[in-house]
Amino acid sequence: MSSSLPIASPVDADTYLALQCLLFSEARLLDNEQYEDWLDMLTQDIHYYMPMPSRRVRDEKESSIKPLEANIFNDKKQHLQLRVDRFRTNFVWSENPQNHLRHLVSNVEVFPTQTEGEWQVLSVVTVYRNRLDGEERRMIVSRDDIWRVEGKAVKLARRTMQFNHAVVADSNLNIFF
Amino acid sequence: MNTLDINQLVDNKTGRQSRLIFHEQSVYDQEQEHIFGRCWLFLAHSSQIPEPGDYFRTFMGEDEVLVVRQKDQSVKAFLNTCTHRGNRICKADQGNARRFVCNYHGWSFGPDGELLGVPLEEDAYHNQLDKSKFGLTPVAQVSNYKGMIFGTFDPHAPPLEDYLGDMKWYLDVWLDAMPEGTELIGTTQKVEYPVNWKLPVENVCGDGYHLGWAHAGVMTVASSMKIESLSVGNTDIDSSTAMSVTGMNGHSVLSTLDGYAGYAFYPDPQMAVDYLDANREMVISRLGELRGKQFWGSQINFTVFPNVQMLPGLNWFRVYHPKGPGKMEMWTWAMVDKEMPDNLKQMILDNVCRTFGAAGMFDNDDGDNLIACTTQNRGWQTRRQNIYTNMAMGKEHSRPDMPGIISDGLIGEQNQRFFYRRWQEMMAADGWADIPSYNNLEQARAAEKN
What we know:
Number of strands of chain B: 22
Number of strands of chain A: 6
CATH architecture of the largest domain in chain B: Alpha-Beta Complex
Shape of chain A: globular
CATH superfamily of the largest domain in chain B: Naphthalene 1,2-dioxygenase Alpha Subunit, Chain A, domain 1
Oligomer: heterodimer
Structural class of chain A: alpha+beta
Largest sheet of chain B: 9 strands, antiparallel
C-alpha cells in the first residue's frame, strides 16, 4: 500500500504541520492516559488494526499454508471503548502504580487521498515503557493512517500498524500505539 | 545446595513446593532431560501442515524442531540443525519446501530429513562422505491424536494414547464433538515473559481462584453471561455447577457444566450460541448426554502435561516453551471446529486475540503476577521459602459416570497439586519404567510414594 506512494510528501506545509501536530497531540493524550479524549479523536467507524507479525521466506512458492492473520488489535470503536472501560475500573492491577509511558512520533509523511478533506499519514512511533523496578521496554510500530475532516475536527478513521518485533517482549500491552 | 533432592522439593501430602523449582538452573536442566526429553510434546495441528512439504518450526523444550508433512501424508520431525557444523537450517515460522538448504555451506536436506546434496562433494570431499549417515536427527516418535500431532524424544515413551490415558474422554469433547474435527487458525502469536514455564501452566490448569480477583477489571466490563461458580469477592458461589478433574497422568480439566459458558466473554455471543443450539443434538448422539449437554459449550480448561493448554469456548490453544529457568515463550492460536461458518471462525479468532492475545484483556492481567512469582526468587532468602497449593485438600472424590479425580467447583488447587506431583514423578524417575500411570483416585493413592 505505502510502497506505491510518491517519494516526497506533496501537501503544502500548513497541511503537513497541522497533521503532524495532531499526531503529537494524540501522543500526549496517550502518555497522560487521557483515553476518553483520545477516543474523541477517532471517527465512529475507526478500524484500529495491528496484525501479528510472522516470518515466511521471501521466494516461497504457492504454499498450501495461508493461515488467517492473527492480530494484536483488530478493533472497532466499541472494542477500544471496552479496553478503556476496563482500565477505568481501577481493577487493572498492573497499571497501579502508574507506569512511565512515552510515545515518540517520527518519520511523519502526509499524502492527499482521492477524497477531499482526507489524508493518508505515515508515521513511526517508538513506545517507551518503564514498569516495575527499572524494567524498560521499547517497542517500534509503524503506522499507516487515514485522517478525515469530521465537523470542525480532523479525526482518525483508520490505523493499520506493523509491530516490528518477531516476538512480543512484554507481559501486557495495556496501551495504544 | 549443589545437588537438590527432588523428593524434598515437592510434598504432595501438604501441597508444598520449594521455590527453588522456579529458579535453580540445575532443576531446569533436569527438566529438559526428564520432562521435555521424555514426555509427548505438542508439535503442530494437522491443519497447519496439510500438504506434502508443508513444514512448521517449533520447539520441544529448548530444542528447535521442524515438523514436516511427508509425501505419504505421514509426519516426521527433526532437530532444526545442520548435521555438518550445527547451523539452523530453517528460519521461517512455517511454509512449504521441497528441500531445506543450510545457509552456511549449502548442504541440503529432503522433507524426509535425508541429506540430498553437499556442494563440492566430489572435489572437496573426494566422494568420501557417506551421505546416508548425515541425515537430520529425527524425533524418536511422532504420533497424531485426532488432529493434534505430538512427538517425543524418548524411544521408550509409552504410545501417545496411553500417555493421554483417560484424558482422551475429556479431550474428545472438543476434538471429536463434530464429525470433521478441529483446526488451528491464525498465525502464531508469540509473547515472551520473564516467567518460569510451570507458573502459567498452574495458573490455567486449575486456578479458578484468581479469576474473580486478578481479572476483576475485564470481568466487570466484558462478561456477557454469568458463570455461577465464579464471583468477585468469594461470595455467592455455586460449586455444583463446575468441577476440577485430574489424576489422569498429570493431565487435567477445569470445567463449568452448563454447556454455554465458554462464550461468556464474547461481547456478542449470539452467533456462537446459535451454533451450539444447532448442533447440540448431533453432539449428544456422538458423545452421549453428559458430555454433549454439560461439557460441550462450557468453559473448559484442558491441560496436557507438561505444557499444552486448550480452552474450548474461549477457543484458544497454547504451548509454553521454556527458555531458561526465568523465561518462557508463549505461543497462542485460535482453535475452531472445521464445520463452523467462516464468520464465526473470524469472530472467534478476533476474540481470542482480544482476550488472550498479546494485547488480550485477560492475558494482560496474568503477566505481572507470574513475573513476580518468578523474579522474587532471585532473593537468596526468598527462594528458600516454600509455597503451597493446599486449598480443599482431602475433598477429592470419584464419580461412576466420568473418569479422573474430581473436586467440585472452579475454585480449588487439586489440579495444581497433581501437576506438581506429576512433575516430581517425572523428575525423580530414571526412565519411563519408573513412572507410574494412574487415572483414578484408587490408582493414584496406590502409586503414591510413602
